[in-house]
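Escalation from tier 1.

The customer reports that the assembly of three entities below gives different structure tokens on two consecutive runs. Tier 1 could not reproduce it. I'm attaching the input and our single run for tier 2 to review.
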Amino acid sequence: MSRFAIQRLGIGFLVLVTIAVIVPIVLVVGTIVVQGLAAINGEFLFSAPRNGMREGGIWPAIVGTFWLTIGTAIFSVPLGVAIAIYLSEYARDNRFTRMIRLAIINLAGVPSIVYGLFGLGLFVLALGFGSSILAGSLTLSIMTLPVIISTAEEALRSVPQSFRTVSISLGGTKWQTIRKVVLPNALPGIITGVILGLERAAGETAPILFTVAAFYLPTLPDSLLDKSMALPYHLFVISTQVPGMPLQLQFGTALVLMAFVLSMTLIATIIRSYYRRKRVW
Amino acid sequence: MERTPKIVIEHLNFTYDDGTESLLDVSSTIYANEITVIFGPAGGGKSTLLRVINRLNDLAAGKSMTGRVLLDGQDIYAKEVDVTALRRKVGIVFAQPQPLPLSLRANIEYGPRLAGVRDKQKLDQLVEQSLTQAALWDEVKDRLNDSGYALSGGQQQRLCLARVLALEPEVILMDEPMSGLDPLSTAKIEDSMQQLKQLYTIVIAPHNIQQAARVADNAAFFLQGRLIEEGTGKQLFTKPKDKRTEDYIMGRFG
Amino acid sequence: MNASITEHKRTSLAEFAAERLIRGSGIMAIVFVFLIFAFLLREGLPAFTEVPLDNLFSARWYPIEEYYGILPLIFGSLVVTIGAAIIAMPIGLLTAIFIAEIAPRWLREILKPLIEVVAGIPSVVLGFFGVVILSSLVRETLNLPTGLTAFTGSVILAYMALPTIVSVAEDALDAVPRSYRDAALALGATKWQTIWMVTVKAGKSGILTAMMLGIGRAIGETMAVLMVTGNAARVALEPGALFMPVRTMTATIAAEMGEVAQGSAHFHVLFAIGIVLFVITFLVNLVASFAIFRQSKRSARLLS
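Tier 1 run:
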């Protein structure tokens, strides 16, 4: 067989493999959308579950996930952006900085269930927050940090060095320079990173299993120290723990969760490409 | 005319750890209300000297310095010096026009605002005054809210000059400010320099010898980090004493 | 503005506070890693005194009767992860090669975000899909008693690891200088030969990083695995093990932590499993990050 025949065969094989990767993705998303849409209506979205979750809707879980995401943002965004500013604007290339980077790489690699154990040990038990939105948000925040830090740092570093020099040369202090020049220009990138981080937090189940999640709680949370339902955990429960659960409601819940998360990706992508096109430098 | 020393440099040694440009035992005096030209081949230490005078070199990692730089008799590297106040007093214009991604007006107001100027009338007056001094006011007065990037390269560089002037500085450093500009813009900036020296002390590292000879009241020739020769512009460009200066001016190297 | 340059030397309080906070925040990343490890140790170490070691390292996990052998769980994690690696590594590499070297630009712009969509789908959604669709598919096509098997878990995990493997490997291939390929092509190699003998070889350390990160993601995955692997804790060193139900370390913690009494031996053993997981992923990430560091050093050398 000639070298070129081998090449044609090889490339043909690569095309097949790539199709084998893409087709299931389309099938999964497509199935959930098609099957799930049948369940979506006002009652499903805006009412509480009834009859051991086999009827009614998912409103408490939507509200719980919403508050968890907000809570995660409150803790992780200031800290994550501060660490990113530190790494991009202050840190010198020394052993301490390398340790911080290594720590971030490892935070990114810690399994989500281990975050769950950590949250249980520190926030729920040692600090006495109990199983609550507060404990869950804090746990999710730490899990989210690496994503926020690395994307925010990249955004800060992409601001041209000359802007900093100009600001300093005009009598700006380092902090003024960061606040007036670096941060505003890095903002679209930082927002993108924050959304991507929160998206991950919103979809995670393992970290909230023992730190917030209520199996079946048809009421809405009143305070940060309340337990709450959450979409990912609700989907887990109704698809594995509830016998006789109507399949349609399961698909509906999966669709709402997937739409919630993927729409965040979409927003992040739109923000990024809009500002890429708009920026002058 | 009585000459007032503005900047005095005493036995200045400066090196970067990575071995690029350095300065070796440089001593010189820069006089008020004159245009001092520092020139020489690339890598001779011109940019480094300018960045030492307003302490922009503080930002560079890995450097060492000995000697003193005095502004009006005050050691600018002394502990009690407020670096930001120094940089407002000693402004710098870079080789590449570098507007901040803000409107024209915000670019000019940037420095004064950082210095605490809040009064709207004062800011308006600074904008008009500095743009006029930089010979840009007539071209942009109707579009002060446009982005700084909407200007041509020459206009951008005049904007950068205006931005420095808005600080009401005493010394203006110019690091090859006309290197990328068209002849018309160059002429405009050179003209305004002649006006500006009534008010300010100007130190410029021009990008070619013709320009150096055109604008210089005083000139200093730098080669490989050493100050080879200094004197009035007339003397240095017509009757240089040092062979190396002459060779460079005649275009035998560089 | 004629004030002397020494007159106003002062640092504003806000500026001082902001800089302090930022410098202090840097260290928080390190603090969190230590905190995580410390709390795992605090709750997990008692297991080693409360449970005899021969029990702990036995092949029987049956907590109701106080059998805490973690070997079947480690075995379960291994089987599922290796299965996922066998599926995902070649597919991921080949897809990365297709995207980086062969696909035209427009196709690349479609394929890359499409694959990244998978990274965005929550694992519980993929687990759900595994339960309601994939498992019955596996059961019927392979004629098994149940579709909830290690293999089902491996397939789902493989797809979860794919976005990581494809995008990191694609970056690595993309970073191979154009001139390498041109040189090979100029010597008469076909595109196909160039890909394998030059591009893939030159991008090997980045590809290795991609594999490690993908595997790291697979070991730590919890929900999908919990939902589709059937959760039977056993060590089955037989050829068909891949097609039987298993129970992984992550799934065990997730399934049982909710029901144990706080402070009991069972509670502590679950934390001890957390320690094992933490250490494994720590090592995997360490190796992957060293591969990254080496690569960046090499490119820095090439540039200078």
